[in-house]
Design goal:
single chain, alpha+beta, five-stranded mixed beta sheet
Length: about 775
């Protein structure tokens, strides 16, 4: 019994001593570990490391570190800070020369990734722990990292050259880890944009040795404003916005850019770029790709659909440049400069180069798009290089193709669009997918008002148009780049207005030219065949020359007929529309005579009445007010005059003054100091002010109405007149006007003119085009 008691006593003492030793080790190892790490941190990692509380359990292998901080290389700036690190080490694996972290968890890490001209800010760590295989023998000591996890992290990305300062938050990352003898890494991840809306979630896996990878990513409304610094780097001014949605599966290899395969959906929504929000050069409501398989290496570009919803694009031409050159530099110099400079990194140009590589062999590959569609597009062209602004608006533009397939005999694409203020364009295109130099095209341009081109006519001839309908139809057949086509140009009832006296306008004898090119039925009708190589086509103008010669011979004999037609058209037009010249506030003598006749008609026909509908070309009226008032302001300053000294002759002088006058433009630039205003019209508007322009336009509208109704007031027939509210329009003839609608009796002059015109339209010179006139009436 005594012997047994001694054994128990000795065992208890030994266990107690061991327990004390273990407790002592546990108590001492934690501060020792902290001390050793902080002492030898730079020797081991090249970085300074500080920690808060450290707890190490040598029995279970559990390690806890709070407030871990790793600093930048030779700097007091933080590289990584972690609220807490929890890890567990498999101690028994140490006996088999294996250090195995069975789990590592980083809670609330804050990581800074910074790119500069010297590289990424953690490149020194990579170099530190990359073994030199030429000097070191393979080690028989192995390391396993298992169960790696990041909870609620923040990652900052900075780039000094652009500069970029972006972050993602709520970063979650979970990885089963990697054993020393395994070749793959699998990661689950998710995060939110730190500065804007949007999030991403997905999986990533990679084979370490051959660098094959797989990526699944789902993107929810990710705001692409994070790319704005890169866009600012490529442009001189302007704003940008867009967001990204995606559900993609990607597999590829990091060694070769073309070795990648995409499937799934990618969409860019609410894309805008321009001077500022609301002043866009381009926008798209939605651009979506539905991808079956996109594999450049396998030469496969297979899409279920490519759709663009409500694209808008504005192109503006100035005296010496255009809006795109202003934004991106001449010939895209800012874009090309970033592309050609290898030391200048820009994410967008890098992506652009990558996409270019992916699509390099598209037409030589196996491609298929089940449906290509552009819906409700809007394309605007403005030309400010002329005396007066020219504007063309295609809306809505719809482009459709049900199937684009390399294996098809033909690819068919259709385009339909309206033209503001009037007109339509239809194009049907059929292309050989194996040879883009072989195609057929039919097009039809209908109901286009000739007055739309008055800005060009005034600038190059001094004559505007006040009537005319343009129609152009064509049929093209191209084989191996060789064109054979027929083109039918028809301009109905083209008429010149009075010459405009402007020293900037070129002067051509348009009346003589019109008498030569216009036939006796007041129609220009030519067949214009075009043949030859697409790069150097030949125009066959025999039909034009023949008709011109016939007109020279026949026109003198039809002079009375043409005068009769013109007078009859004027009678009808004058009775139905009361045209206001630009800035005209009171009727001229002929117009006043017509108003008096109208008042007399109403006084004699008490059951008759008229409705007057003001149709105001607001855009043109405002532009004219802006240009005149700005030139007037310059003139008054230059001549040292005040408003009371401004005479009628002064007004005529200002009206004839060139808007491109060098001294006038110096004056504008001095008084409108905005680097984002490029046109004389815009500078004039800025100088005068929108409030003053609005007041002037309203006063002009009131003055017109007051002067128009005076003869009716004198005759006491105002009860027989009804004015409707003014309507903002882009008028067919290019001028504001009053539309007159008769109720009850109609004037005899109008009835007579109608009957006379019906008779003239049934006579041989005009009968051939009677249907055309009815169609565009």
């Amino acid at each position: 019994m005594n012997q047994k008691h001694k054994i128990i006593k000795i065992s208890s003492i030994i266990l107690g001593i061991l327990s004390i030793i273990i407790i002592f080790i546990i108590l001492i190892i934690s501060p020792v570990a902290k001390h050793l790490i902080e002492k030898y941190d730079e020797q081991l990692t090249g970085r300074q490391i500080t920690m808060g509380r450290v707890y190490v359990n040598p029995i279970t292998g559990y390690v806890h570190i709070s407030n871990l901080k790793i600093y930048e290389l030779r700097s007091d700036s933080l590289f990584v800070s972690v609220k807490s690190v929890n890890a567990k080490i498999a101690l028994f694996k140490l006996f088999s020369k294996t250090l195995e972290f069975s789990s590592i968890t980083l809670n609330h890490p804050d990581i800074l990734i910074e790119r500069s001209s010297s590289g990424i800010n953690f490149i020194d760590i990579i170099r530190k722990f990359t073994p030199d295989k030429t000097k070191n023998r393979p080690s028989n000591f192995h390391v396993n990292f298992l169960g790696f996890k990041i909870n609620d992290g923040i990652i900052h990305y900075r780039e000094k050259s652009v500069p970029v300062n972006f972050m993602i938050r709520k970063v979650f990352l979970e990885c089963p880890g990697k054993r020393w003898n395994s070749d793959s890494i699998d990661v689950k991840y998710s995060f939110f944009s730190g500065t804007h809306k949007g999030d991403m979630i997905g999986n990533f896996s990679m084979h370490v040795k051959n660098l094959n990878y797989r990526l699944d990513v789902i993107v929810h409304t990710f705001d692409l404003l994070v790319l704005e610094p890169y866009i600012i780097d490529l442009k001189n001014f302007g704003s940008f916005s867009a967001n990204l949605e995606a559900n993609l599966k990607v597999k590829g290899n990091f060694k070769e850019a073309s070795d990648v395969t995409f499937t799934g959906m990618l969409a860019i929504n609410k894309f805008h770029f321009g001077i500022r929000p609301g002043m866009d050069y381009g926008s798209i409501d939605k651009f979506q790709l539905a991808i079956f398989q996109l594999s450049p290496k396998k030469n496969q570009y297979l899409f279920d659909s490519v759709s663009i919803i409500h694209p808008n694009f504005k192109y503006e031409r100035y005296d010496k440049s255009n809006n795109l050159q202003k934004m991106f530099g001449k010939k895209g110099s800012r874009l090309s400069g970033r592309t050609q400079n290898p030391s200048s990194f820009n994410l967008l140009t890098t992506i652009g180069i990558y996409i270019e590589k992916l699509s390099k062999n598209f037409f030589k590959s196996d491609y298929k798009i089940n449906r290509l569609a552009i819906y409700n597009g809007n394309f605007v062209y403005n030309d400010y290089s002329l005396i007066n602004k020219f504007s063309l608006n295609l809306k809505p533009v719809n482009i459709l193709s049900d199937s684009i397939d390399k294996n098809q005999d033909r690819i068919k694409i259709t385009l339909q669009t309206g033209i503001k203020p009037s007109g339509t364009l239809k194009v049907a295109l059929s292309i050989n997918p194996a040879d883009s130099s072989e195609f057929d095209m039919n097009y039809s341009l209908q109901r286009l008002p000739a007055t739309l081109f008055n800005s060009y006519f005034i600038s190059y001839t001094s004559y505007p148009l006040n009537r005319g309908i343009v129609e152009l139809n064509g049929n093209w057949k191209v084989r191996k780049g060789y064109l054979k086509s027929s083109n039918h140009l028809k301009i109905i009832d083209l008429r010149l207005a009075n010459r405009i006296d402007n020293k900037d306008a070129k002067k051509l004898p348009m009346k003589l030219i019109m008498s030569v090119i216009r036939d006796k039925g007041n129609v220009i009708d030519y067949q214009i065949p075009v043949t030859g190589n697409l790069k150097r086509p030949k125009f066959n103008i025999k039909d034009v020359i023949r008709d011109a010669l016939v007109n020279i011979i026949e026109k003198p004999f039809k002079t009375l007929y043409r005068i009769n037609v013109k007078n009859t058209e004027n009678d009808i037009e004058k009775a139905l529309t009361f045209k206001w010249e630009i800035r005209q506030s009171s009727p001229d003598a002929n117009q006043l005579k017509f108003i008096n006749e109208m008042a007399e008609f109403l006084s004699l026909n008490k059951t008759a009445s008229i409705i007057v509908q003001p149709q105001i070309f607001v855009q043109k009226e405002k532009e004219t007010i802006e240009l005149f008032d700005a030139r007037k302001m310059y003139f008054m300053t230059f001549k040292h005059k005040d408003q009371s000294e401004f005479t009628k002759n002064d007004s005529i002088y200002v009206d004839r003054m060139s808007v491109k006058d060098h001294k006038f433009n110096i004056y504008l630039n001095k008084h409108t100091k905005s680097r984002l205003v490029f046109t004389t019209q815009e500078k004039c508007a800025l100088l005068i002010g929108s409030k003053r322009i609005k007041i002037k336009l309203n006063q002009l509208t009131i003055n017109r109405k007051n002067t128009f109704i005076q003869p009716f007031i004198k005759k006491g027939v105002m009860k027989q007149i009804k004015f409707t509210p003014s309507k903002t329009v882009i008028p067919f003839n290019g001028y504001s006007f009053y539309k007159i609608i008769y109720q009850g009796e109609i004037p005899e002059i109008l009835s007579t003119a109608y009957n006379k015109m019906n008779g003239l339209n049934n006579e041989s010179p005009r009968k051939a085009y009677k249907k055309d006139r009815l169609k565009v009436r």
